[in-house]
Design brief:
The complex is a heterodimer of chains A (113) and B (111). With 113 residues, chain A is mainly β. In chain A, 0% of the residues lie in helices and 56% in strands. Chain A has strands at 4-7, 10-14, 19-25, 32-38, 45-51, 56-59, 62-67, 72-77, 86-93, 101-103, 107-112. In chain A, the strands form two sheets. In chain A, strands 2, 4, 5, 9, 10 and 11 form a six-stranded mixed β-sheet that branches. A five-stranded antiparallel β-sheet of chain A has the order 1-3-8-7-6, with no helix packed on it. In chain A, strand 7 (62-67) and strand 8 form a beta hairpin. The N and C termini of chain A lie far apart (41 Å). With 111 residues, chain B is mainly beta. Chain B is built from no helices and eleven strands. Chain B has strands spanning 4-6, 10-13, 19-25, 31-38, 42-49, 56-57, 64-70, 73-78, 87-94, 101-102, 106-110. In chain B, strands 2, 4, 5, 6, 9, 10 and 11 form a seven-stranded mixed β-sheet that branches. Chain B is globular and about 40 Å long. The chains are: A mainly beta (113), B mainly beta (111).
Chain lengths: 113, 111
């Protein structure tokens, strides 16, 4: 089955710096790679996703890159703000119907003012 | 926006008790999921359901069962709670696409 590894487990940056979180996956059949943000006391929320036919996707300060050959994908946050502080999870799997996702172990991002 | 509601935010139970965690979604989603979240382990899938009365085991189903009698409701059952089931439990739903909508979670403590 699919296995997803995520690094680092914690990341501290200064406000305005960039943050990068990396994930690797094992199953070459996976074709969908979302990123979720979990704020304190809340459930995870989707912030960006990418499908295997795309190499990069951007949404304002957030971008995700995918390298299918190496089986890794990364989340990039530019110009970080204190409200970016949260736990971030990557996931890999299928995107249709009941196809399940396998999540990484999470990265706690702390952005200091 | 989709709302996924979990019946309890915090729950304390004794070992051996039968525990029911309830989840309701209001957007007519076919697919519903139960995950548990533990520090350093991320989110692990316990069970999922793609239709009423249908269920599939996830990666860690041992000690759990589920029930889906109505489309909007998906229940997680701990037949005989044990201390190693102390965890945060997250319910999620989705339609045909990839986006999961999560509830706020139930923090279960088994003493």
């Amino acid at each position: 089955g699919e296995n997803v590894e995520q690094h680092p487990s914690t990341l501290s940056v200064q406000e305005g710096d960039s943050a990068v979180i990396k994930c690797t996956y094992s199953d070459s059949a996976s074709n969908y790679f979302p990123w979720y943000k979990q704020e304190l006391g809340k459930g995870p929320q989707l912030i960006i996703d990418i499908r295997s036919n795309v190499g990069e996707k951007k949404d304002q300060r957030i971008a995700v890159t995918l390298n299918k050959t190496a089986k890794h994908f990364s989340l990039h946050i530019t110009e970080t703000q204190p409200e970016d502080s949260a736990v971030y999870f990557c996931a890999a799997g299928g995107n249709t119907g009941f196809q399940k996702l396998v999540f990484g172990t999470g990265t706690r991002l702390l952005v200091s003012p | 926006d989709v709302k996924v509601t979990q019946s309890s935010r915090y729950l304390v139970k004794r070992t051996g008790e039968k525990v029911f965690l309830e989840c309701v979604q209001d957007m007519d989603h076919e697919n519903m999921f139960w995950y548990r979240q533990d520090p350093g382990l991320g989110l692990r899938l316990i069970y999922f359901s793609y239709d009423v009365k249908m269920k599939e085991k996830g990666d860690i189903p041992e000690g759990y069962s589920v029930s889906r009698e109505k489309k909007e409701r998906f229940s997680l059952i701990l037949e005989s709670a044990s201390t190693n089931q102390t965890s945060m439990y997250l319910c999620a739903s989705k339609a045909g696409g990839g986006k999961l909508f999560f509830g706020s979670g139930t923090q279960l403590s088994v003493l």
